Amino acid sequence: MNTPTLPGPDGRLRCHWCAATPEYTTYHDREWGFPVDDDRRLFEKLSLEGFQSGLSWRTILAKRENFRAAFHRFDIDRVARFGERDVERLLQDAGIVRHRGKIEAVIHNARCAQALIAGEGSLAAYVWRHEAPPADASAPVSTSAASIAMSKDLKKRGWKFVGPTTVYAFMQAMGLVNDHARDCVTRAEVERARAAFNRPGR
Known about the structure:
Elements: E1 5-7, E2 13-15, H1 23-30, H2 39-52, H3 57-62, H4 64-70, H5 76-80, H6 84-91, H7 100-120, H8 123-128, H9 145-156, H10 164-173, H11 187-196
Antiparallel strand pairs: 1-2
């Protein structure tokens, strides 16, 4: 079984995956697991998790600013208006992952997000309805009952590239579950942020 934590550059224990690349440390300490209620950031993360399918998060993180520029910082309404000319433009953009299916899925999902927001009030209100306690597992998990349920519902609504593993990674990153290791230096800070967080739609 993987060691849950490893010492970082400062000697403090962090989730073991941080050791893969120095760029992960800042992402881990400042973003991963902290609760998010901004629709644009939520849509961005769902989109980038879709792009990550079959790749490493390191690849996506390194290109994240390029993705933000290419997709107008993931403004849902602007992306929903993208057409074939935009798809062709993005396929020529070496700064992002040039995969037609994934590019078209982001545009398609922006339109699905518009419909969801019209019915739910916000993407955040919908997402946080699916918050659930983490699975009681002795080893890291890649899905949960909540991610399976959310994935199934999103697919029913027409979303693409939103399988249970993709959705669970999204939930971990956006704070719907605190999956920092028990002795990780960031776990308590994330838990305090989650305790103080006002869940949208409640």
